[in-house]
Amino acid sequence: MLHYLLRRLIAIVPVLLLVSLIVFAAMRFLPGDVVLALLQDAGSFPPDKMAQFRQELGLDRPFPEQYLTWLGGVLRGDLGNSLYSNRPVLGEIVRTFPITLELVLAGLVLSLCIAIPLGIVSAVRQDSGLDYLSRLIAICGLSFPDFWLGTLTILGLSLFFGYLPPITFISPFQNPWANVQQVIFPSIILGFRISAITNRMVRSSLLEVLRQDYVRTARSKGLRERTVIIRHALKNAFIPILTVIGSLFGRLLGGSIVLETVFLIPGMGRLVYDAVFKRDYPMVQGIVLTMTLVMITANLLVDLAYSWIDPRIRYR
Amino acid sequence: MALEQALQAPGARPAGRRWALRGLLRFARKKPGGAVAALVLCLAILVALGADRIAPHDPLEPAVVRRLSAPQPGFWMGSDSLGRDVLSRVIHGSRISLYVGTLSVLAGTAAGSLLGLVSAYLLGKFDLIVQRVVDSMQAFPDLVLALLLITFLGSGVNQVIIAIAFVIAPATSRVVRGAVLSVKENAYIEAARSIGVADLSIVFRHILPNVMAPILIVASVWLGNAIVVEATLSFLGLGAPPPAPTWGNMLSSGSLGHMEDAPWLAIFPGLAISMVVLAFNIFGDALRDIWDPYLQGR
């Protein structure tokens, strides 16, 4: 197990390096740069001053030199300073990451609360009215864009309750109830969208497992249907479901960019969206690396959870 | 011989038509939901193709006197902040959404399939390098990758198509690679190789037709999704530049600013996206059930 874990951790390094190289190159090839973005509001600016700015920010140095300098900093735990606000990138990520993580985890939990019961009902009552209803809900989840659901939610809340999302974010430690009010609607939308994929997987794997001999044996022993489904079938159907959950983090993080923008939540998604437009290279690089790390870690945890769910799975 | 003559005879066309019609009827009987979705899609395609004739007004023509007017006869979906007819803009917006959705899926699945085919067939160092690049591309959240690409390429319809195709290609290549790895172990590939068939011919004449089902399944899944991604990019201000109407930019420009006084600006374009994507997903599901016998009833 330890050997496997070490191997997986080592395998993360080349992927992170490649991602860092891709995002670094992508940012440098974007038209315009942070100096133009900074001076956008300043009207005309002498070209020699702009060249001086670029020199001071190190943007005039050769690409490999810039990359290696930045990479060296990353290895020392220094992601550099924002070219726009001059604040440390790591500090900004530490400030905004918990907000996005709260949204993503709440969305994930809500998606499981929707998907697992619907998926079970759908599989147990295959081809019934309930099954079709559950599948329709899943397809609707895949089809309704999250920004539209977000816009409609704000519209409904403002028309009927006079509620508009607050401009400043309230931490759960500051005021838990206000925080729940702020996060609940984007989380439900995120959860609804993601539940569609999990729901389909729960139904499909459960249908597969329900045809197995051991389920027939459990039923013939006289076990209650609920025990057969939850203790025997669902547990064995959980591995593909877990794999899907691991792969959902990309969608959750992508969804957080849109929903944080619609609901004015100052999380990491909105930060990266703004940073791309402002050509804030270190900020984009730092956030994309963090997002990649989250996705890789989620998949690693899912892989490790396999052996916990099915003890026959051994990692060597 | 008689069958060949019958097929080659001029009378073969109506027989082919009858066969196609029978196939359609069988599809409608087996998958009524899929058939209704197909009808909705046909309607959406017809609307997109005939937008110039169907739209009651010019989608770009402003009229200050009727700005933000509520839905009423003549302006069934109301008008936006510049007085432009929302219905006409929704009708014209279908063109861009369907065009971007279809072309990006075609380009993305074609590129991903080619990459998956070649990578799985050649294996070795080429496969190793391609797979690590694919790993890295998939390590980006889809929207971040599209965001970076659009910013790099600039805004515009073709740029959006390229960006979405880039998102689709790695996922497709993974699926196709897996299918090719299994197909290439079949005896008929070994036989083709042993009689000296060229690699290119083995890949495109013997392997590709046998992995078409997963390719079509992936494409059907992505069709609806590509329209949502296009609308999301437009909503974030990265799609086709104004004044061209797209469903995403109609939501972005109108709805948030006039949330309370003109809710129709948020409702109708979103309904249009949702209905078309819903139809694509239901139709895709039905096709998947028919093409992939393993998935039937799942």
Explain what you see.
The complex is a heterodimer of chains A (316) and B (298). With 316 residues, chain A is an all-alpha fold. In chain A, 77% of the residues lie in helices and 0% in strands. Chain A is built from 13 helices and no strands. In chain A, helix 9 packs antiparallel against helix 10 and helix 10 packs antiparallel against helix 13. The longest helix of chain A has 36 residues. The model of chain A has no long low-confidence stretch (mean pLDDT 86). In chain B, helix 3 crosses helix 5 and helix 5 packs parallel to helix 13. Helices cover 73% and strands 0% of the residues of chain B. Chain B has a single domain, classed as MetI-like fold (Orthogonal Bundle), CATH 1.10.3720.10.
Ordered list of secondary-structure elements with their pairings:
The complex is a heterodimer of chains A (316) and B (298).
Chain A: H1 2-29, H2 34-38, H3 47-57, H4 63-75, H5 89-124, H6 129-143, H7 146-161, H8 176-210, H9 213-220, H10 225-247, H11 249-262, H12 268-277, H13 281-309
Chain B: H1 2-8, H2 12-30, H3 32-49, H4 51-54, H5 86-122, H6 124-138, H7 142-153, H8 157-183, H9 187-194, H10 199-207, H11 212-235, H12 247-255, H13 264-291
Helix pairs in contact in B: 2-3, 3-5, 3-13, 5-6, 5-8, 5-11, 5-13, 6-8, 7-8, 8-11, 9-10, 11-12, 11-13, 12-13
The total strand number of chain A stands at 0
Mean pLDDT of chain A: 86
The CATH topology of chain B comes to: MetI-like fold
Question: Tell me, what is the CATH class of chain B?
Answer: Mainly Alpha
Q: Can you say what the CATH homologous superfamily of chain B is?
A: MetI-like
Return the string of H and E elements of chain B: HHHHHHHHHHHHH
How many domain modules of chain B? 1
Q: Give the overall shape of chain B, derived from the CA principal axes.
A: globular
Task: Quickly give the structural class of chain B.
Answer: mainly alpha
User: Could you tell me the strand content of chain A as a percent range?
Assistant: under 5%
Task: Tell me the number of helical segments of chain A per DSSP (H or I, 4 or more residues long).
Answer: 13
